[in-house]
């Protein structure tokens, strides 16, 4: 008897399978699933459902079987990791079909290396990796959530903090072979996931996300050390550390101090192209008369170059950074900067 799963996989597109699945589930159950989908996805599936003239019982059974197998595979993957899921599916479905399911599932879920590490307590993970080579630590941290990576970075020695931060910042693409080798070292204690394609992680934006979440002392130590070792990289990191739109995170007192130091022309130019919540925050911390004058100046300014707007915004960001360095204002940084009244 032909395998219904294989036949369906060959004959139908994924969108057609989804349509058949919803038809099989019925209106009530389909409506519940639709609540968790994006509008464009719902529109595509609805059009596909409408175009289905006839669905055979065999197709329904095959699609339901495939859906069930994919759902179970995802459950195995999330609970026990890639190797566990592979072993269970091979015993249940055979090696060829198991490999097919795993390959499609890892691609659709964009499974990343060290996925299990993101479920590990940062303190436990720190104890495990703190004696590893800085490049190994950097590779692992590049795949962690920024909050988790920030906790680990803050807890490393000062010498290692700057070294690891630098290695994350200059990291680009890492080959699967290197990732597998690192994972093989860790596999005795921690489960891990492997991708088949080159993966992009690290880079300046990655380390900025981490530094924005560490405490100010840790950040300053890392930046000062990096400035000596790599001034150009440090300047690029500093430019991204605090963007103009982040002024919404300033408390009213701090923002008022910033506004006293900012040139009026720079402020009007900076607000020319900015989200409403940013402009509202600024206007709120000015006198009514000053806010009205600023709004009028922005309205009658006319077209401006994006480059000029960005330069003006950067000038204001520099004012904020200078005031912060002097200790005159405080910029909220992650979970470790709660204020005490």
TrEMBL record:
GO annotations under biological process? bacterial-type flagellum-dependent cell motility; chemotaxis
Q: Which GO terms describe its cellular component?
A: bacterial-type flagellum basal body; plasma membrane
Superkingdom of the organism of origin: Bacteria
Domain spans labelled Flagellar motor switch protein FliG N-terminal: 11-114
Compartments in which it is found:
Bacterial flagellum basal body; Cell membrane
Where's it mainly located? other
* Gene Ontology molecular-function annotations: cytoskeletal motor activity
Q: How does it sit in the membrane?
A: Peripheral membrane protein
- The residue ranges of the Flagellar motor switch protein FliG C-terminal domain are 224-330
Would I find tRNA processing among this entry's keywords? no
Q: What's one Pfam family here? A: FliG_C
Query: Which intervals hold domain Flagellar motor switch protein FliG middle?
Result: 122-196
By sequence similarity, the record places it as follows: Belongs to the FliG family.
Q: What is this protein called?
A: Flagellar motor switch protein FliG
Q: Which organism is it from?
A: Schwartzia succinivorans DSM 10502
């Amino acid at each position: 008897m032909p395998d219904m799963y294989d036949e369906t996989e060959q004959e139908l597109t994924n969108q057609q399978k989804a349509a058949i699945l919803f038809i099989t589930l019925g209106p009530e159950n389909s409506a519940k699933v639709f609540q968790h989908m994006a509008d464009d996805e719902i529109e595509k599936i609805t059009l596909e459902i409408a175009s289905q003239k006839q669905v055979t019982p065999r197709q329904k059974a095959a699609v339901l079987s495939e859906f069930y197998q994919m759902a179970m595979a995802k459950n195995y993957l999330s609970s026990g990791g890639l190797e566990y899921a592979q072993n269970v599916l091979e015993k249940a479905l055979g090696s060829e079909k198991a490999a097919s399911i795993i390959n499609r599932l890892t691609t659709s879920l964009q499974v990343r290396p060290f996925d299990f590490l993101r479920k590990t307590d940062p303190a436990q993970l720190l104890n495990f990796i703190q004696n590893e080579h800085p490049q190994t630590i950097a590779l692992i941290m590049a795949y962690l959530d920024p909050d988790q990576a920030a906790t680990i970075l803050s807890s490393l020695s000062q010498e290692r903090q700057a070294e690891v931060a630098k290695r994350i910042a200059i990291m680009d693409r890492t080959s699967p072979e290197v990732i597998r080798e690192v994972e093989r070292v860790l596999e005795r204690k921690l489960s891990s996931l492997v991708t088949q394609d080159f993966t992009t992680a690290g880079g300046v934006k990655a380390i900025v996300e981490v530094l924005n979440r560490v405490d100010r002392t840790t950040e300053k130590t890392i930046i000062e050390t990096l400035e000596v070792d790599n001034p150009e990289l440090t300047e690029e990191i500093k430019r991204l550390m605090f963007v103009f739109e982040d002024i919404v995170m300033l408390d009213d007192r701090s923002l008022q101090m910033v506004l006293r130091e900012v040139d009026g022309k720079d402020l009007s130019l900076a607000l020319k192209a900015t989200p409403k919540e940013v402009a509202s925050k600024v206007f709120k911390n000015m006198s009514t008369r000053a806010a009205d004058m600023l709004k009028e100046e922005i309205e009658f300014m006319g077209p401006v170059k994006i480059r000029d707007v960005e330069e003006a915004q950067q000038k204001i960001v520099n004012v904020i950074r200078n005031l912060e360095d002097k200790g005159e204002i405080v910029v909220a940084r992650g979970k470790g900067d709660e204020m005490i009244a």
